[in-house]
Design a protein that fits this description.
- By secondary structure, the chain is an alpha/beta fold.
- The chain is built from 9 helices and 7 strands.
- The chain has one domain: Rossmann fold.
- The protein has a 7-stranded parallel β-sheet with strand order 4-3-2-1-5-6-7, with helices on both faces.
């Protein structure tokens, strides 16, 4: 029996019950989008904050994140974080102590991630992609603290969406320039230098270290255009 014939035989024996379960999963995904959209519709204006889950409360990054999010909350911005430990906890803790809602978008993981206790609003997700849409859809800005693969994933996706015109531009602020210096240098030398991105794409991100300046930068960006998305800005969000 040839390799192709073996493949056909195996394919024909696929468990059709699994295929049926996979189809029904679509409805679970739909319900996740609907529930999260209804829950988060009341948190605007909001800022999404990302950072490592592995940072202990005694680390300077934790205090820096907490300070920034306290200022954002007191300035009238809800804070969206991943709802977990580390800098996600610091973000929620800072916002929780402030005047605006602290929101955790929690993800269900094989190795259970426990939600931090500093959440006024908590929304759980089984699917990373649904959760990522909510971070973009309801945010006026991204504040990106030092972090690992998950943090980089959110950063790169937002840059891609803006570069390709899938969403309107908004502030993406990288905090603690020494941490990001090597990556930004690589962006400039390799990505822009070898024509992988345009030189103006480098303007999509801004490094700011001072907590008060983070808040001020977001205010300056929206002074001329308002803090709620226009009809023109909302329409692309339906097609994420």
């Amino acid at each position: 029996m040839s390799g192709r014939e073996k493949f056909k035989k195996v394919a024909a024996s696929v468990d059709h019950s699994y295929a049926a379960r996979e189809s029904w999963r679509v409805f679970e995904i739909m319900s996740e989008f609907v529930e999260a959209t209804e829950t988060l519709a009341r948190v605007r204006p909001a800022v999404s904050v990302f950072g490592s889950a592995r940072i202990a409360p005694a680390h300077p990054y934790y205090a820096l994140t907490e300070r920034i999010c306290r200022l954002l909350s007191d300035a009238g911005f809800s804070v969206l974080s991943g709802g977990g430990p580390g800098l996600m906890e610091a973000a929620n803790k800072g916002a929780f102590a402030g005047k605006s809602p602290s929101v955790g978008l929690n993800i269900v993981l094989p190795h259970e991630q426990s939600g931090n206790p500093y959440q006024d609003i908590s929304q759980s997700f089984s699917h990373f992609f649904a959760r990522k849409v909510m971070f973009v859809k309801f945010a006026l800005a991204y504040v990106v603290m030092p972090g690992g693969f998950g943090t980089l994933d959110e950063l790169m996706e937002s840059l891609t969406l803006m570069q390709t015109g899938k969403i309107a531009r908004f502030p993406i602020i990288l905090v603690h320039e020494p941490f990001w210096r090597g990556l930004l240098h690589w962006f400039q030398e390799r990505l822009a230098g070898e024509g992988m991105i345009g030189a103006d794409d480098l303007d999509l991100v801004r490094c700011i270290d001072d907590p008060a300046e983070v808040v001020e930068h977001i205010f300056r960006f929206y002074e001329a255009r308002g803090y709620f998305p226009s009809i023109g800005d909302q329409e692309p969000l339906l097609n994420l």
